[in-house]
From TrEMBL:
The keyword Ribonucleoprotein does not apply. This is Sucrose synthase. Residues 562-728 form the Glycosyl transferase family domain. InterPro entries: Glyco_trans_1, Sucrose_synth_GT-B1, Sucrose_synthase_pln/cyn, SUS_EPBD, SUS_N. It catalyses: an NDP-alpha-D-glucose + D-fructose = a ribonucleoside 5'-diphosphate + sucrose + H(+). It comes from the Bacteria. The lineage of its organism: Bacteria, Pseudomonadati, Thermodesulfobacteriota, Desulfobacteria, Desulfobacterales. Transmembrane segments: none annotated. Its EC number is 2.4.1.13. Residues 14-113 form the Sucrose synthase N-terminal domain. It comes from Desulfonema ishimotonii. Residues 150-239 form the Sucrose synthase EPBD domain. Keywords: Glycosyltransferase, Transferase.
Length: 798
């Protein structure tokens, strides 16, 4: 292999590079991440009195900024070079630093295995290699990282180009796709017995357009129905003459001059989605008394709001199409017989604020086919999911009286069940990860065996990888969730290649450049979350109740009291787990007198009693919170409430806004941040972590504030600066609050979300029917093999 050192490092810096590599080789730690590398670089070359220009502008520092990790294995330094978002080179260097050569992905992973397992064990355990890339030969591929997350736009251009280049073939496919759609066995759009070929369809379409253009725009479909049906056109073109004409002109133009925008507009109008199954097995899925319980938080809120918005959008969609159909949506989750104070033991529960949307609960069963009665952590549900999917298929077919049109998976377990159901029912599948654990737990792939007892990461990471590849399309809330930033790796990106030493190497785990990834941020329930100054919408009794409970009530489920309830309130609420970092905020508040002097801390999380929690991580966080109250003497300065019911959270935010307070989301990492949207729309200046999705919601120092949440002092400094700025400028608080409201209303609404999700379903449905189905069969069979080999057998053994 050729030495590429000079391609990466300027020749005049070669000696410095060699010196630096030598120092790294002498370090006790042999595995270094990006921050470790850059800190050591600064420390070493400052001691050598290097210039500021060298420390900030040298070719060496530019290269090291693109290195997420390096490690020493078998007398070599192995370097991962992320030279662009989603794109990598792998290098091997001698410890003398005098040469660098490229190696393959498989070789790089082999060295990682050897680093973890040791030479003897490594030689005795030849790895299974997992490679999905050969199964993407049916799909177009993007080149530019900027297109990641906008897959449908790329795919539409590909499809319209194919339609233009091969009009007979693709015109026939489009005609057949339109013709096959039915709702409740009734044909839509085209009667195939009358219009049998694309030519017959276009000829009749041209005739129909002549007279429909002359009809009064407001004439309803019912008055035009008989004439349209005689020509072979069924319902679904529009509610009146104007809408029918628009839709027919779209498809006529699409056949005449194919264009990606025309394709999207036409396919998006087709009223082909009426039944949706949304899968979310883990946690406590209900509408009351569930938030704050283990594994139960933002995902439940997301799904319930999603359901209401989708039903509303689909209802309008059918009305505009002139079709008398009502949509039905079912959230499939787990039934928990020992339901505590929730409704999770009920088989079926209607979702508030909907016409025909339901929570359907199916129990887990053990190996003896006995129903599992107690709650189970999301990390330990794997032995039950295969049977759960089998039982759920029968229940869904019964409830829908047929197959759903779309299956949406949520989180790792829900996505796996969605994959199994989609495979059996041959239905379009959408994957929503919410949060992939692989990036949340440091080095959890390399040291999976040490964590397996508590987390079962080997099964979870494999399930994530399979569902990403089998799914028709994937939606994420932010670009970062998929592909990270210039300096951080995205959640999905982290699955491109990895190794579970001793089990398998994922040489190509997920293909970021396939056009299946799309960014669709969720919205906020505007009936519950609205600005604090819209007082006519607020309920006086509820406001008074929560003012008392938040600041003065001596209830036995609240811990802590406030010496001066009139101080600026700092508020947070979340699940009580390590990643949410509420104890980090407690430390930030307690360690800095300037915050305690001017502010109070109020937080709502889980329960104040260890014995009421069934989750080990939550129990540890509860104990830590008590220790911090005593250690930092927070009595008189902080209050701790149990989790707040979803229906009350909007008014709680507004009460804190009434008092000039702030909302702080101190998570170490946040995939998106629904509470951030809720607080902003309620008019509460909001602080969120710079790690993850919040950086795409909050415009720093414009519509809120981004913080480095890795250390309490860094959290405290951002809050302190804001409090001081508000003292200097009496309008500063209101300026930030108003900008936050405007930001949410402009970019994050459930109507925008619903329109895009349903449009994606229809467009990927056309792609699947017209081009991808045959290629996807090979992918499906490969995934089935991996499922039985790496998931089912291992889960059954737990």
């Amino acid at each position: 292999m050729s030495n590429i050192l000079s391609d990466l490092i300027d020749e005049k810096e070669h000696k410095d590079f060699k010196d630096f590599i030598f120092v790294l080789g002498q370090m006790e730690r042999k595995y270094l991440l990006r921050n470790d590398i850059l800190l050591k670089f600064q420390e070493f070359f400052r001691e050598k009195k290097k210039s500021h220009n060298f420390l900030t502008q040298s070719s060496m520092v530019h290269f090291l900024k693109q290195v997420p990790e390096m490690f020493i294995s078998s007398d070599y330094l192995l370097i991962l070079h992320r030279y662009a978002i989603g794109k990598y080179h792998f290098y091997r260097s001698g410890l003398a630093g005098d040469y660098i050569e490229k190696i393959s992905t498989a070789d790089y992973l082999k060295y990682k295995d050897r680093y973890v397992l040791g030479a003897a064990t490594w030689r005795s355990k030849p790895p299974l290699k997992v490679d999905f890339m050969p199964f993407y030969d049916f799909s177009p591929s993007m080149r530019d990282s900027k297109n990641i997350g906008n897959g449908i736009r790329f795919l539409n251009k590909h499809l319209s180009s194919s339609l233009f280049q091969n009009p007979d073939k693709w015109g026939r496919k489009l005609f057949e796709f339109i013709k096959l759609h039915k709702i409740n066995s009734n044909p839509l759009l085209i009667n195939g017995d009358i219009l049998r070929t694309p030519d017959e369809f276009l000829e009749e379409l041209e005739k129909t357009l002549k007279w429909i253009r002359e009809a009064a725009p407001e004439i309803p479909y019912t008055e035009l129905e008989e004439r349209l049906k005689k020509s072979g056109f069924e319902g679904g073109w529009g509610k009146d003459a104007a809408r029918i004409r628009e839709t027919m002109e779209l498809v006529y133009d699409l056949f005449s001059e194919p264009d990606s925008d025309l394709l999207e507009k036409f396919i998006s109008r087709l009223p082909m989605i009426s039944k949706i199954a949304i899968i979310s097995p883990h946690g406590w899925f209900g509408q009351e008394n569930v938030l704050g319980k283990p594994d139960t938080g933002g995902q439940v809120i997301y799904i319930l709001d999603q359901v209401r918005a989708l039903e509303k959008f689909l209802t309008r969609n059918f009305q505009m199409a002139g079709v008398d159909i009502k949509p039905k949506i079912i959230v499939l989750t787990r039934q928990i017989p020992l339901a505590e104070n929730t409704t999770c033991d009920q088989r079926s529960e209607k979702i508030f604020g909907t016409d025909d949307c339901w929570i359907l609960r199916v129990p887990f069963k053990d190996k003896n086919m006995e129903i599992v009665k107690h709650w189970i952590s999301r990390f330990h549900v794997w032995p039950y999911l295969d049977r759960f999917a089998y039982d759920s298929q029968r229940e869904l077919l019964s409830e829908f009286q047929g197959k759903p049109d779309l299956i949406i998976g949520n989180y790792s377990d829900g996505n796996l069940v969605a994959t199994l159901l989609s495979d059996q029912l041959d239905v379009i599948q959408c994957t929503i990860a919410h949060a992939l654990e692989k990036t949340k737990y440091l080095l959890s792939d390399l040291y999976w065996e040490e964590m397996e007892k508590d987390y079962n990461f080997s099964i979870q990471f494999t399930a994530d990888m399979i569902t990403m590849n089998k799914s028709d399309f994937v939606i994420a809330s932010t670009y970062q969730e998929i592909a990270g930033t210039e300096t951080s790796i995205g959640q999905y990106e982290s699955h491109q290649f990895f190794t579970l030493p001793g089990l398998y190497q994922a040489v190509s785990g997920v293909n970021l450049f396939t056009p299946k990834f799309n960014i669709v941020p969720p919205g906020v329930d505007e009936n519950n979350y609205f600005p604090y100054y819209e007082r006519e919408k607020r309920v006086t009794g509820k406001t008074e109740y929560w003012e008392n409970r938040l600041f003065t009530d001596k209830s036995n489920d609240i811990y802590g009291w406030l010496k001066d309830p009139g101080k600026i309130p700092i508020f947070t609420m979340a699940r009580f787990d390590k990643i949410k970092n509420i104890t980090g905020l407690i430390e930030a508040f307690g360690q800095y007198p300037e915050l305690r002097e001017k502010c109070n801390l109020i937080f709502a999380a889980g329960t104040i009693r260890v014995e009421e929690s069934g989750d080990r991580e939550e129990q540890e966080q509860i104990r830590t919170a008590y220790r911090l109250f005593d250690k930092l003497d927070l009595h008189g300065h902080a209050r701790w409430l149990p989790s707040i019911n979803k229906a009350d959270t909007g008014e709680v935010y507004r009460i804190f806004a009434d008092r000039g307070g702030i909302f702080v989301q101190p998570a170490l990492f946040e995939a998106f941040g629904l509470t951030i949207l809720e607080a902003m729309l309620s008019g509460l200046p909001t602080f969120g972590p710079q790690f993850g999705g919040p950086s795409e919601i909050i415009e720093d120092r414009v519509s809120g504030f981004l913080m480095n949440t890795s250390k309490p002092g860094l959290i405290a400094s951002v809050i302190r600066d804001f409090v001081q700025d508000c003292e200097k400028d009496k309008g500063h608080w209101k300026t930030i609050a108003e900008a936050g409201i405007d930001r949410v209303r402009e970019k994050f609404t459930w109507n925008l979300y619903s329109r895009k999700l349903i449009s994606l379903t229809k467009l990927y449905g056309f792609w699947r029917y017209s081009a991808a189905e045959e290629g996807m069969v090979k992918m499906d069979r490969y995934c089935d093999l991996l499922y039985h080999l790496l998931i089912k057998n291992r889960a059954d053994a737990l």
